[in-house]
Fold this sequence. Notes:
alpha/beta
Amino acid sequence: MAIFVIVIVAVIAIYASQKIYLAKSGSSKNLTIGDYAPDFTFFFANGTEANLSSYKGHEVLLWFVATWCSGCAQGNELLNSSYKEFSEHGVKIVELELYNDLGYSGENIENFVQDFAPEAYQNNVVIPAYASYNMTLAYDSRGYLDIYYLISPNEKILYENGPLEATLPELLSEIDRTARI
Length: 181
């Protein structure tokens, strides 16, 4: 029991320290639904540079994760079992490791996605990538370990939520709703 309490306290301390780290870093205003999504450079796991504007004309889910986060791993497992719904709606999923994994050691993003969402990865539904420092600050100014944004084909934020493992049904409903617009 004592070990369980120590683990819980450690997780809370890590989470709190990351919120403080991002708050001290001069984070930008919180993004809201209807805003244009900031267009930052990020890198795919294979090293290729990209940015959000390269997805213009497509609905895209930007999902920011920490690869040492167990909830993020669970989100990938759920995504693996429901990736066809994203694919059927033409939603591109870019899963971005938060900058430097928020200062903690985790596996690289490509291995993380392959381990927890192998079918989604193999079918190119989930594309692993690394967020830059400025991108992390802009999209995760509150220091969450797992946050996502659904971006419209014209680069506006349609929906924001997280963690994915707890909110996947709501996200899928939003994707269905936006497909009918």
